[in-house]
Amino acid sequence: MLEVLVLVSGGGTNLQAIIDAVDSGVVTNTRIAGVISNNKNAYALERAEKHGIANLCVSPKDYSSREEFNEKFMDAVDGFRPDLIVLAGFLVVIPPAMIEKYRERMINIHPSLIPAFCGKGFYGLKVHEAALARGVKVVGATVHFVDEGTDTGPIILQKAVEVEQGDTPEVLQKRVMEQAEWKILPRAIDLIANGKVEVRDGMAYVLS
Ligand code: GRF
Asked: Which of 24, 142, 178, 196 lies at a C-alpha separation of 20 to 30 Å from 157?
């Protein structure tokens, strides 16, 4: 059974997609062990609470230094003894020690087809604003392992989504979530839970 810890900062629609996929059996061999947010007002925490999933807030604002936060945050993460950590809209920089400890056991969902519209400053609506400003006809989402860079780890899954005439950033964001994020993130978890993902020479492969 894969013990999964989900890290969130906002509305938690990706967390909800994972919860629903586990409940419906779309994701197998998986238990959501807990949810941690840096934002005590994150609706994602309410989603966890409603579902009886252990949840807590660990915020940098509550500590006098980033070093102290990093230590307390990692203690909280380790406390769940996760096999896999899922960053689902988590907006806090992951401590380097945590990246090392959970290498190839920590994944992130990014709302673009990496390497497009990713890296520092590309998060949330900014990603979709940039895509519309560039006039791309296809966008999408990516699930990748987390490494020391920003959105640079081995890519596990991607899913493309059409840009439509008159799209606003908000409309496009919702379509990317509905048609891509909420599908490939649960699917990536199920693949990992069933030993179907391998990393070789910095590249991730889905085994048939
Ligand atoms: C999603 O768009 C995700 O791609 C990005 O942050 C957003 C989180 O949304 N990393 P939610 O909190 O899962 O609704």
From this structure: 24
Output the residue whose Cα is nearest ligand 1's atom 3: 89
Query: How many separate helices (H) and strands (E) can be counted in the chain?
Result: 7, 9
Alpha helix locations (H) across 53-148? Answer: 66-79, 96-101, 125-134
Q: pLDDT band for position 201 (50/70/90)?
A: very high
Same domain for 92 and 122? no
Mean pLDDT over 76-83 rounds to 98
CA torsion sign, 56 to 62 to 63 to 66? positive
Domain containing 176 equals 108-208
Nearest CA to ligand 1 atom 8: 89
Question: 148 exposed, middle or buried (CB, 10 Å; 0-12, 13-18, 19+)?
Answer: exposed
Classify residue 177 as exposed, middle or buried by CB count within 10 Å of its CB (0-12, 13-18, 19+).
Answer: buried
pLDDT digits (tens, 9 = 90+) for 117-143: 999 999 999 999 999 999 999 999 999
30-61 pLDDT, tens digit each: 999 999 999 999 999 999 999 999 999 999 99
- Mean pLDDT score across all residues of the chain: 98
Number of domains in the chain: 2
Question: What's the 88 CA to ligand 1 centre distance in angstroms?
Answer: 6
Query: Which residues are designated catalytic?
Result: 110
Q: Give residue ranges with CB within 6 A of ligand 1.
A: 8, 10-14, 44, 88-89, 109-111, 124, 177, 181
113 and 93 fall within a common domain? no
